[in-house]
Design goal:
The chain is mainly beta. Helix content is 10%, strand content 47%. It has helices at residues 2-17, 127-130, 149-152, and strands at residues 22-26, 32-41, 50-54, 59-63, 66-70, 75-79, 83-84, 87-95, 108-115, 141-148, 154-161, 173-174, 186-194, 197-202, 205-211, 218-225, 229-240. Strands 1, 2, 4, 5, 8, 13, 14, 15 and 17 form a nine-stranded antiparallel sheet that branches. Strands 3, 6, 7, 9, 10, 11, 12 and 16 form an eight-stranded antiparallel sheet that branches. A hairpin with a 2-residue loop joins strand 14 and strand 15 (205-211). It is globular, with a radius of gyration of 19 Å.
Length: 241
């Protein structure tokens, strides 16, 4: 009895000591995984983990412990850490619509598993050349999710081929209101890249469930937007096993 009580106490102490470092994950009807925390950033210590590529006129700051993006003509904010193998990415986004000059409800976007075929070992070799202009990213090899583009009328998923081609499948061209941005509220984003399974969730709803027979299994993650004002918080990356 005493040994059972000690074991139970140990489990409780471990649960408190290591919160949210590992959890069970349901990917689909037949696939389950264990998610182990690899990286997290609550932005309370600045932007040292991030590389900003932004067109003139915008600014990216650490405001009250959150990543705040005020953009005019386009920007990408890269996590300066290459991600490998089956992963899950999570973060909270908040698109601001309070009458400010850049408070345009549009473009809650992101890239993941990004690589530059011209510089396969250094994504940032062409960082200044890209400079935040959207068309300058067409040559990268990556997955792209654009939520609420075109003034919050379109949500689209694309697989960039790395040669300028970025095909759009009809089933990944969404315009129903349930797929668009709801401003002034916390939106919880979850991205899964598990071998060929590519999924994008928003507030628990799976918007994209794509099977890639030739998956991109390593690369960089970046927040992407244009002419927008939003904040990001509680960023986490998990390894999936």
């Amino acid at each position: 009895m005493k040994q059972t009580s000690l074991s139970l106490l140990l489990v409780m102490l471990l649960s408190v000591a290591y919160p949210q470092t590992e959890k069970k994950l349901v990917i689909n009807d037949t696939l389950r995984a264990i998610a182990s925390l690899l990286h997290k950033d609550n932005f309370k210590n600045g932007l040292e983990n991030w590389k900003v590529e932004q067109m003139p006129g915008g600014i990216v700051t650490n405001t009250k412990g959150k990543l705040e993006i005020t953009d005019v003509a386009g920007c990408t904010i890269w996590l300066q850490k290459q991600l490998e193998g089956p992963i899950m990415i999570q973060y909270d986004a908040y698109v601001i619509d309070e009458g400010g000059p850049q408070d345009r409800v549009s473009d809650l976007n992101c890239f993941w598993m990004a690589k530059d075929p011209e510089n396969p070992n250094d994504l940032f070799g062409n960082s200044e050349k890209r400079g935040g202009k959207f068309s300058n990213y067409d040559s990268l090899r990556l997955y792209y999710m654009g939520v609420g583009g075109h003034d919050n009328t379109k949500t689209r998923f694309r697989r960039y081929l790395g040669n300028g081609d970025r095909p759009l499948l009809p089933k990944h061209d969404l315009s129903e209101s349930k797929f668009l941005i709801k401003p002034n509220k916390v939106t919880k984003i979850k991205i899964i890249a598990y071998d060929g399974i590519i999924q994008y969730y928003r507030d628990g709803q799976c918007i994209i469930d794509f099977y890639d027979p030739s998956p991109y299994t390593s690369g960089y993650f970046g927040f992407r937007t244009v002419n927008n004002h939003m904040t990001i918080d509680n960023f986490k990356v998990f390894r999936l096993e």
